[in-house]
Amino acid sequence: MNVKKIVCFVFVCYLLAGATTNTLAQKPIWHDGGVNHTKGISNFGISYGRSLRSNLFIGSYGRYMTNKWIFNVNAMYENGQYELTHLDGYYVSSGFDRTLFKVKDFMYFNTGLAAYIGGENLSAPELGETKNSFVFGAAGNVNVELFIFTQFLVQVKAEKYYSPTSKLGHFFDVYSVGLRYCFY
Fold first, then answer.
1. Residue 37 has what DSSP assignment?
2. Measuring CA to CA, which residue among 85, 56, 61 is closest to residue 183?
3. What's this model's pTM, rounded to 2 decimal places?
4. First CA to last CA across the chain, in angstroms?
5. Which residues of 121-155 are buried (b: 16+ CB within 10 A; e: fewer)?
6. CA distances from residue 169 to 6, 161, 162 in whole angstroms, order as listed
7. Which of 88, 93, 166, 181 could be stapled to 121 by a disulfide with Cβ–Cβ 3.0 to 4.6 Å?
């Protein structure tokens, strides 16, 4: 049997079981509005992103400071091939997002700024070269959060990164999609 089918089946069973036995302050699992973007709510998430130079895998933590301001911390792993150069990158970022507007308490449009640090390992096997470098910079983003259940949201994000120290260029774009779990 296909592993993807098994994982999907277990996830659906978990969601259906939670619909009848949810213990988080007896909140319904289906989206009921009014509980999102509230001060004190936190979330964990995983995302997958793409850029012209690589794939990115992102783990994230967010905390709603107010109903409009969100504090975020991300850990990212980047792996890919850019022209003749193989790239492995590890980064940590921290920043704030601000909600610009919402649609009926289940869709939020945000923009944000962050600072990041990390390391890049560049290798060109054909040329026999390897370079390791420390990188830092800033990033700006726009994102949409779509709450599909009270505690689950899908986030679609477009980011622009700037690094004066990267050997692969100063600017690059990342487009990602991820799933986040909110806890109260």
1. S
2. 61
3. 0.77
4. 37
5. ebbeeeeeeeeeeebebebebebebebebbbbbeb
6. 42, 10, 9
7. 88
